[in-house]
Amino acid sequence: MSWSQAFSGVLGSMGLVTALATTAVATPAALAAENSVTSVRSELAPASAASTADVTVLTIADSSKVHFALDKAQYSYAQAQAAADATGSADDVLWFHDAAAQERLQQQIATILHDFTGTVGVAVLSPEGLVFLLNDSDFPLMSVMKLPLAYVVALKMQERGDTLSTVVECKRSVLDANTYSPLYDQLKGNGFTQVDDVVVGEANSTKLRLPLSLLISYAVGKSDNNACDLLLTHYLQSPQALEQALHDMGLERTHIAHTESAMGKDVELSYANSASLFDMTQMLALYVNDKHLTPEVRQLIDNSLWFSSSGAERIQSGVATSLEQVLKDSAAAEKLKQQGRYAVYDKTGLGGTNAQGQRIAVNDLALVRINEQSWVVAACAKNIVGEKEQTIAASNEVLQQVVATVFTELLAEQELKL
After folding, report:
1. Model pLDDT for residues 85-105, shown as the tens digit of each residue
2. What Rg do the C-alpha atoms of the chain give, in angstroms?
3. Less CB within 10 Å around the terminal CB: N or C of the chain?
4. Alpha-carbon distance 170 to 152, whole Å?
5. What is the rounded CA–CA span in Å between residue 11 and residue 156?
6. CA quadruple 19, 224, 348, 238: dihedral, nearest 10
7. Which stretch of DSSP H or E encloses residue 338?
């Protein structure tokens, strides 16, 4: 079987961020009429703001420790694109920064993907540039969208002078009772008056006042769809406003067209919220590079991402496997984690089933830190054929194995010790 056959069907600059501050967005009249909502920002009482005071700062997430040179990343990405042009298909490209090791990786990854019934893509970005790219097509973002959403919200907070105590007002009626939403479950269980001991409404009122601290932590840390949609439609004003902000950062292949609620009602809309793997890694690198976010906001987002439980069987597992292999210790990852020398900050995504009976996507986007070195990793599978639960398990396994293979190669270049 040829390399192409094995993969058939399987496979900016930081200155741009400042452009976001001058981007004007308008609330679409139709959206406002549909939701019957007035989006209002005001301040909570100081007592409510204290709900996030007990979060521990994770010093390993300090952005001053690493900087991703995105100009170098663009140069190495151009090399990967040249490889894609040579194959004649974005799906078939496999590029590694070390040409001597590339053939070995090709053989190993072709074996991993041989029986997989979907399309897989992985990109790895180091501070020195792109180091690995498998597949240069676009992938549905699913809930990975909530990470760039949180970043753009954080930037908009600075522009407006808002804080984590700033609230977004909405009517109860705009919340989707039929989507995944721990936030809604708490609200309903508490008579729509409080969430996590924070008062957000009155028993006899149809209005809610939700602080940004709750919306961000629930959207990112709990992958809450209602929290996500409120940030999209009531704080940023529309999904298109998020897309424009990301385009202003130079992420031209990132597209945001729909809310989580809309995609829940029509899963085919999920394909309209998409990005290239390289765009995904650049976005997270921009977040890491940003030295202007307030410590409180960065702390909240970082803690929501730190070793997320939903990502345990994807990138986290792949990196842990590579650490065990390189250090020849089955507990290497846990030991390094306990020593504060290893961390993964990730956001996952999971799609439903499309009209062809395929799992739309299984995704993971992560910042990996080992000692003083860092990488951004995007690992995605799409259009997976098979039984519903089996498609998730099979995708997790393949993504874990590809990440482990690449990181075993990358870590062999490091002088790691326990």
Report:
1. 887 777 778 999 999 999 999
2. 21
3. N
4. 20
5. 37
6. -30
7. helix 332-338
